Amino acid sequence: MFHKNIKLALAFLTIVWSVFEFWQGHIGNGIAILFLTGMFILLYFKNEFILLSFLQLRKQNFPGAQKWLTYIKNPSAALTQKQEGYYNYLQGIMLSQTNMTQAEKFLRKAIRLGLSMDHDLAMAKLQLAGIAMTKRRKREATTLMAEAKKLDKHGMLKEQMQMMKQQMKKI
Q: Could you tell me the pTM of the whole model?
């Protein structure tokens, strides 16, 4: 994994190379090098290991997702703020299966750093509501559930919210 500043430097150098190729009259080479520049810019905004971890998570392969996340050594230095938020979001989701206290810390940090998509933020708040419910903090759980419901505009988490409401009635 390259540091975020190295990715920007590589993007700048490939743009210069592309301009040189255009100036020399090699239009095809210049266009191909611009695609390479686009890859460096894309990987600046979307970290490759986080993307691979999301891919593993979609396959329900938690050890594989954790393996890709372990390649990120120092998240606060190597990632942008949103990427660090998603790093903590993924860590929180994976740890919610085993260690609730640690998962709560990661999810709270992810919300504080910010997530780009509303449904990701809703999922993080729903996970926090579930953790609060297991720790017998009903008021906090209902508040987080209400916030998650506002953020879930497409109704993707509707079933999970209904199940959680039924479990809250038992508390």
A: 0.83
- Output the average pLDDT for the chain: 90
Q: In whole angstroms, what is the distance from residue 70 CA to residue 53 CA? A: 10
Specify whether the CB–CB gap between 104 and 131 falls below 8 A.
yes
Please say whether the beta carbons of 4 and 78 come within 8 A: yes
Any idea of the CA torsion for 46, 147, 150, 87, to the nearest 10 degrees?
Answer: 10
Write down the residue that tokens 């996970």 correspond to: 127
Tell me how far apart the alpha carbons of residues 88 and 54 are, in angstroms, rounded to a whole number.
Answer: 12
34-77 residue pLDDT tens: 999 999 999 888 889 999 999 999 998 999 999 999 999 888 88
Going by pLDDT thresholds of 50, 70 and 90, the confidence category of residue 157 is confident
Q: Could you tell me the CA-to-CA distances from 130 to 62, 111, 140, 143, 146 in Å, in that order?
A: 19, 15, 10, 12, 13
CB atoms within 10 A of CB 144: 24
Task: Identify whether the C-beta of residue 164 lies closer than 8 Å to the C-beta of residue 126.
Answer: yes
In one letter, which amino acid is 111?
Answer: I
Query: What are the structural domains, with CATH classification, of the chain?
Result: 1-45 (no CATH), 47-170 (1.25.40.10)
